[in-house]
Input
Amino acid sequence: MTIRNIVKIDEEKCNGCGLCVIPCAEGAIEIINGKAKVIREELCDGAGFCLGVCPTGALTIEKREAAPFSEKAVAEVVSDREEAHMIQRCFSCNSEEGEIALFPCRLKGKSLWVCAKCLPKLIHG
Ligand code: SF4
Output
């Protein structure tokens, strides 16, 4: 065990929408019985990419004692999930994640993906 940053999920606030599952490149989050869960501590690196897409504010980062992050555990989980991966697209130009970097954003109450080309238009109008 070590003291480190890890995602904390407030089950009272979580509505089970599942939006936080895809931004987690490590496969640390699953929806279980209608609520998001960090399935194994060693899969969560505490980077917090899931936080930006949560519509209810259920996700935060806390510093606490946890199992160390494990690249090996991530590699096993990610290879198991590759076949089930859904390709994400930019809401504005429809570019897919294999073509250009996508970023999570919130717009008019929706959680969306925007690509590196379209992001400046969102920022600067
Ligand atoms: S995005 Fe937020 S509300 Fe939706 S499942 Fe994840 S933690 Fe729950």
The pocket of iron/sulfur cluster is lined by residues 9, 14-20, 31, 36, 53-54, 56, 58-59 (CB under 6 Å). The mean pLDDT is 91. Residues 103 and 119 are 8 Å apart (CA to CA).
